[in-house]
Design brief:
alpha/beta, TIM Barrel, seven-stranded parallel barrel, two-stranded antiparallel sheet
């Protein structure tokens, strides 16, 4: 049986007159879309357009909830009470559920965005709150999370399916964490490097850290390319082609997890 992998991308992040990324050119090369819910990017028109495009191209739809941080694009940490975070998460995922229903498609997954994703990966209470919110809405949803993270563990404990995620265009530290964006070389733009490291990750479960050490992340089910990466179009296209040529089946994670 061929190895299977999902390619996901953060899309629908444009807001009003502000355009972010190139959703129309990225979407044909991915299998799952994480769509902004309005808190860090996205608006009702953008959400509808993105889901419509995903339906047309048979791309699975997911919610991409964030801290309420339009000014910081959701990349600034916020300290919220658990009931605030739960309700913010329910609110955002519900928005995507409603739009998905209007287009006759089912929401596949939930992936926290930016600082919320990073906090949930490390903080038990944050991760449990997000999982609780998701389970309240629909326990069949898949949660995207880093391997062996607090978020992955909380989802497994709550009997929610988890897709362990690898970031194709982000550098890793020796401890398996992502190199902070403010650091040099944190984002990878070299197409060949992105494809090579992803193939190794899928087949061997390991990636080279920024210092050259081999880091074991274990089995992954989904690979992310950031939609706001200027190289996102060529990266997703090359990644899909490269994985397929390597004998890896590329399909939405809901079809094999």
């Amino acid at each position: 049986m061929k190895p299977q992998i999902d390619i996901n991308c953060d899309l629908g992040e444009s807001y009003g007159a502000f355009k972010i990324g190139n959703d129309q050119k990225v979407m044909p090369h991915i299998t799952s879309a994480n769509i902004a819910c309005g808190f860090h990017g996205g608006d009702p028109v953008t959400i509808a357009q993105t889901i419509g495009l995903g339906k047309k191209l048979n791309v699975a739809i997911g919610a991409h909830p964030s801290f309420p941080d339009l000014m910081g694009f959701g990349r600034r940490e916020m300290r919220l009470a658990p009931d605030e975070l739960k309700n913010y998460t329910i609110y955002q995922v519900s928005v995507l559920q409603g739009f998905a229903r209007a287009f006759g498609v089912k929401l596949q997954h939930v992936k926290p965005h930016g600082a919320l994703y990073n906090m949930a990966a490390e903080d038990e209470k944050t991760s449990e709150t997000i999982v609780d919110a998701v389970k309240t809405l629909d326990s069949s949803l898949i949660i995207f999370a880093p391997p062996d993270s607090a978020l992955a563990k909380a989802a497994i404990k709550a009997r929610i399916r988890v897709a362990h995620e690898f970031f194709a265009d982000r550098a890793y530290n020796p401890d398996g964490s992502l190199v902070p964006r403010k650091m040099p070389n944190a984002t990878i733009h070299d197409t060949r490097k992105v494809v090579e490291r992803t193939i190794r990750m899928v087949t061997e479960g390991a990636v080279l850290a920024l210092n050259g050490e081999s880091v074991s992340l274990g089995e992954i089910q989904t690979v992310c390319v950031h939609g706001d990466n200027p190289a996102a179009v060529k990266l997703t296209e090359a990644l899909h082609k490269g994985l397929t040529r390597a004998g890896i089946e590329v399909k939405s994670v809901g079809n094999f997890l």
